[in-house]
Write a structure and sequence with these properties.
The structure is a single chain. This protein has a single domain, classed as Thiol Ester Dehydrase, Chain A, CATH 3.10.129.10. Helices cover 19% and strands 34% of the residues. Strands 1-2-4-5-6-3-8-11-10-9-7 form an 11-stranded mixed sheet.
């Protein structure tokens, strides 16, 4: 089925434009979820890539980092989530899971053909989940793709499906500890298009029940991957991440991780909290 709404961008989608759209009332889920697809061709700029690496705590590499397309494609996610036809307001939506696959490495100077589209939704007992599927190619093949799952709390009728499976609960040894950077939310918002005030102003965050402003989850994942055993970026890679709680600016964190036959499992803990803020699994797909 062809998308009902197609958004084609000649340049990076304007955060100002889609944040302004976000102020409009949302139609609700009774009308269903329209098929929306957004496209954009992006040329990687060395300065922007260097800024991404610095903000994410990642070293330079010969190919694009696994999380770079995840961040650069996010403005298209924002464009979809703020469309007037999208059934729920973006301010009520939280990312809860990322599934990322790199099928082939992307060159540092590549021109990326990026497409993001609504891939499905589920009505749950206490809310609803929406999947957005992103693909990134180099003009010939799809080299990278992801499914980002977003959750909104509420009552939307009888449940139609189970929630996305939770991360497997395992006991992991501590492998690293550090203090997260004290800021950078505005700069990262410039890359991702996500200027959610929760990432920018502690006063706003406190009004919504958080101790202070907190990181974009994509950026936190970068700081985690930078401290895991290095993987061969020329191989197909897969990352699954469950986003379970906020990581505050300047907070002390501990990374627990272990590498086994199925890859490297990891969990990030904030302020001595035994409940992880992020849980993930990174592996390579050989052969």
């Amino acid at each position: 089925m062809k998308p009902e709404i197609r958004l084609d961008y000649r340049a990076r989608p304007s955060a100002l434009a889609f944040m302004a759209r976000a102020l409009r009332p949302s139609p609700g889920l009774k009308r269903g979820v329209p098929a929306i697809a957004a496209r954009w061709r992006h040329r990687v700029a060395p300065a922007e890539l260097a800024r991404f690496n610095a903000l994410s705590g990642l070293p330079g590499s010969e190919t694009l980092p696994l999380l770079y397309p995840h961040t650069i494609a996010f403005p298209l996610h924002m464009a979809i989530l703020t469309q007037p036809a999208f059934p729920v307001p973006i301010w009520t939506v939280l990312q809860v899971r990322n599934r990322i696959q790199q099928h082939a490495p992307l060159a540092r100077d590549a021109t990326l053909d990026i497409t993001v589209q609504v891939a499905g939704h589920r009505i749950l007992e206490k809310g609803a989940e929406f999947d957005l599927h992103a693909t990134v190619g180099d003009g010939t093949t799809i080299a990278w793709e992801s499914v980002n799952t977003f959750y909104v709390r509420g009552r939307f009728g009888a449940p139609t499906a189970q929630a996305v499976p939770e991360a497997q609960k395992v006991s992991l040894p501590e492998t690293a500890s550090w203090h997260m950077p004290a800021g950078g939310g505005w700069h990262y918002g410039g890359l991702s298009g996500d200027y959610n005030p929760l990432h920018l102003w502690s006063g706003y965050a406190r009004k919504h029940g958080f101790a202070q402003a907190f990181f974009h989850p994509q950026r936190v994942l970068g700081h985690c991957l930078a401290r895991l055993p290095q993987v061969d970026s020329s191989l197909p890679l897969r990352l699954e991440a469950w986003l379970k709680g906020p990581v505050f600016y300047g907070a002390p964190v501990k990374l627990r991780s272990e590498t086994g036959p199925d890859g490297t499992r990891f969990a990030l803990h904030v302020n001595e909290d035994e409940r992880p803020a992020i849980v993930g699994l990174l592996n390579t797909e050989r052969g």
